[in-house]
Amino acid sequence: MIRSTVFAALGTLILTACGGPEDAPSVEVADAYMVAPSGGRDIAGGGLTITANGADYTLTGVETSAAETVELHTMAMEDGVMRMRKVEAFEVDAGGTRKLESGGDHLMFFGVDSEIAPGDSVELLMDFESEDGSTTTVNIRADVRALGED
Ligand SMILES: [Cu+2]
Known about the structure:
It is built from one helix and ten strands. The protein has 150 residues and is mostly beta strands. It has one domain: PCu(A)C copper chaperone (Immunoglobulin-like, Sandwich), CATH 2.60.40. Strands 1, 2, 3, 4, 5, 6, 7, 8, 9 and 10 form a ten-stranded mixed β-sheet that branches. A hairpin with a 4-residue loop joins strand 9 (121-130) and strand 10 (135-145). Copper (II) ion binds next to strand 8. Copper (II) ion (CU) is lined by residues 45, 73, 84, 106, 108.
């Protein structure tokens, strides 16, 4: 007998919402975007919305072929100034939603492909760990937006 959690782990590269038993835990990602780098820079911010169903999920990493590395950043007050700080993970409680966006918790892309321009979309591979320790990767496309559209 296959436990539902095992099923979720086998859902790698497929949005688990697409075919699992209704009560199987799943994690969904929507509204993903990257803000196109401006002025010849190769650093970009980005955001998306994560929804955890039936279990707590932790975002542990993001990869894309459009940039060399992707970091998870949060904004924190340091010496009276808001600064970005790298974190190792973002947790999403079961039944909850977590929004990553400019000005708050966000994604930061480094070494962005110089060909990337507004109107493009880039593929993100998002690694999640469920509260039972199983891992799943969600594959989503992020729209590339011009600065100011985010
Ligand atoms: Cu940042």
